[in-house]
Amino acid sequence: MNLDKRELREVERLTLAWQQASGSRSGDGSRERPLSLSALLEQRRRALEGRVG
Amino acid sequence: MAEILARLTLAGVSILLLASLVQQFRQVGPRGRWIDALAVVPQWKFFGQDAVSLNPAWSDDWHVLARIAPLGEATMPEPWRPVLSPAERTGWHFAWNPHNRSRALLLAYAERLGQSGVDEPSDPTGLGYLSLLRACFEAVPAGEGFVLQFAIVATRGRHERPADLRFLSQWHVR
To answer: pLDDT, tens digit, for every residue of B6-25?
Structure first.
């Protein structure tokens, strides 16, 4: 039940519309300074340790 | 003994049918979810109707997509690629709701993030967000100098499904 080509094109259109409406929020605004997955995992680990400790 | 067993079986089947029916109209609370954990409640989305209950959102199918783009450049990202979608519903699904545990868990995370909405900022250190991000990195190769973004899309029904963008992540590197 993957999205078909028509649905993927619709998602592309919706993404563009959302980014145009939102400006620098969330979407392309983070392309210049992306957070890494490993850094996020480390951040979560420290937060959890802070709660336990 | 046989009679007791028959009555217990009848009671069990009745409870399952009732749970299936109730699940189409209201969210089952924490106490009721243990039945889902056994993967025995039939999934009525099998019928593919647009709105099976009073709450249309219960008919939503959730999809996770990912795309990559060069780091820091203003070029257009590559097209969205499917990462995770509900499995094809076969006749067997009418009577049994098979659970691929990791797949179902990821789709549950997608549903939760999707329900938070595109306009709501989401904590990128949340367990659901990180799980989906990791799954996307495994599914879509993002080499050195590329960033990845994932999206959660909802569809409904079986034919001519309208796609609805429900969540857009930030851009990330591995």
So the answer is: 999 999 888 878 877 766 66
Distance, in Å, from the CA atom of B11 to the CA atom of B72, rounded to the nearest integer, reads 61
Provide the phi-psi class of B161: left if phi over 0, else alpha when psi is between -120 and 50, else beta: beta
Could you give the ipTM of this predicted complex? 0.82
Q: Which of B147, B148, B152, B159 to mutate to test the interface with A (most CBs of A within 10 A)?
A: B147
Kindly report the backbone phi and psi dihedral angles of residue A36, in degrees, each rounded to the nearest multiple of 5, phi listed first: -90, 150
- Residue B21 to chain A, least CA–CA distance (Å): 24
B168 pairs with which residues across the strands?
B151
Minimum CA–CA partner of A15 in chain B: B165
Residues of B in contact with A38 (CB under 8 A): 174
Of A22, A26, A47, the CB nearest to B125: A47
* Beta-sheet strands, E only, within chain B: 60-70, 81-84, 146-156, 164-168, 172-173
Residue with tokens 């049918």: B17
Cβ atoms of B82 and A3 within 8 Å: the answer is yes
What is the average pLDDT score of chain B? Answer: 77
Please report the sign of the dihedral spanned by the C-alpha atoms of residue B131, residue B135, residue B140, residue B146.
positive
